[in-house]
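>> Question from a student workshop board

For tomorrow's exercise we were told to take the sequence and the ligand below, predict the bound structure, and bring the output to class. My setup keeps failing. Could a helper post the expected result so I can at least see what it should look like? The ligand is D-glutamic acid.
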Amino acid sequence: MNHQSLAIFRPIGVFDSGVGGLSVWRALRELLPAESLLYLADQAHVPYGARPQSEIESLTHAAAGWMLDRDAKLIVIACNTASAAALPSLRLRWPDVIFVGMEPAVKPASERTRSGKVGVMATPGTLQADRFSSLVRRFATGIEVHTQICPGLVEAVEAGQLDGPQVESLLRACLQPLIDAGVDHLVLGCTHYPFLSPAIQRIVGPDVTLIDPAPAVARQTERRLHECDLLAPPAASPSLSFFTTGDPVALALAAERLLGLPQIHVDQAEIAT
Ligand code: DGL
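>> Workshop helper replied:
Here is what the output should look like for this input. Compare the format with yours to find the bug.
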């Protein structure tokens, strides 16, 4: 076997500050069942959302270096906040590595809205980044884009709270301004939020369409692997590995709760920034 034929069996690295990237992991598994996936959660530092951009950037660089040391053939930054802070500098530092990043789905929401009003739920880090203002400038001309930070939601999902009175009141506080503004499309601009979709949909009602970018990210990953001749063959038997900088037991429980994966093995990752 030559080098390229072995490369196709290397894993896709999937990185998030915590369990949110599992919403992208799920979309990758559905679209690319032959691919090995190496999931890394930086739960020692979650949440990223309110940290300074420079700190998020250096944590994300450390995570990318760790995944490259473990032979990732492509890295999905399955975190809007980390993508906003670090994607350009990751691509400069590792020009030969394929990075697939995330951004709030302002473009599809703006194309589909009938009311001309779209909502975006995301972390402060994502909404304050240049990447977000450039997205709005390029794709939302003439559209009202209503942004909303959602304090406490990432922590709730990390703790496995997807419903109940506490989550309901956090959600009502951040969704009411968007409901009042009359948005008809709501972008889930943080990978933790799709796990709250049933509760969000119940509050905003059936006339508001939620947009989860995870399936589009999976399709982009497939396109990039295809372009680079790096897709695993259909008969490959993939390995699925999980690492966290936090508590391995907590990530295993979260994977069970959020994805229905029973008793996965999770290892501890030591990452030096
Ligand atoms: N899941 C991350 C995102 O998509 C952010 C969560 C955090 O604040 O750490 O933005």
